[in-house]
Amino acid sequence: MNQDKFPKVAVYPGTFDPITNGHVDIIKRGSRIFDEIVVLVAYNPDKSALFTVEERMQMIREALKDIQSVRVDSHAGLLVDYLKMSKASIILRGMRALSDFEYEFQMALMNRRQTREIETVFLMSGFKWFYTSSKLIKEVVSLGGSVKALVPENVYQKLLAKYNVQPKENNK
């Protein structure tokens, strides 16, 4: 059977607490490579989340509403189990800087060890987003700084509301 007849579905996992423009960049670029991208919001018990899984999923759907080939889902458990269940075989990951490489390499090898049918595809982050992280964004907003240029507008508004802060105009 010719594998090319089946759509190429990539799963882009993360906590996305919150989704950033760096994530959006990876998703947009990935949508030019894959037929469909599943943005998978993972439950991570080791991280304390600012937003609930449902809030994160809604923010992602709103931020990506113009990209037809994207859907949003959530999962608790092993990523490879989700891929098996959904019949996907590609994990999409973004890498910002060299510091991401070791962790991402370990994860890719462990996923591959769980099942040989899974491939991990890495996309380098756009240069504008190399040092953007959800953790840093939350910290800056919590201290009253602006992250308007680093996250989708709907996410920016949710961050302001969550931290009960007023918007700042210096958002270069």
Care to describe what's here?
- The structure is a single chain.
- With 172 residues, this protein is an alpha/beta fold.
- The protein has a single domain (7-130), classed as 3-Layer(aba) Sandwich (Rossmann fold).
- It has six helices and five strands, in the order βαβαβαβαβαα.
- The chain has a five-stranded parallel sheet with strand order 3-2-1-4-5, sandwiched between helices.
- Helix 4 (98-114) links the parallel strand 4 (90-95) and strand 5 (119-124).
- Helix 2 (53-63) packs antiparallel against helix 6.
- The longest helix has 17 residues, at 98-114.
- The N and C termini lie far apart (52 Å).
What topology emerges from the helices and strands here?
Blueprint: E1 9-14, H1 21-31, E2 36-42, H2 53-63, E3 70-75, H3 79-86, E4 90-95, H4 98-114, E5 119-124, H5 134-142, H6 153-163
Parallel strand pairs: 1-2, 1-4, 2-3, 4-5
Summarize, please.
The chain is α/β, with parallel strands linked by helices and 172 residues long.
The CATH superfamily is known as HUPs
Instruction: Give the termini distance in whole angstroms.
Output: 52 Å
Number of domains: 1
Q: Return the structural class.
A: alpha/beta
Provide the CATH architecture: 3-Layer(aba) Sandwich
Strand content: 15-25%
Mean pLDDT: 91
For the largest beta-sheet, the strand count, sense and barrel status come to: 5 strands, parallel
Coarse shape: globular
CATH fold assignment: Rossmann fold
The helicity comes to 25-40%
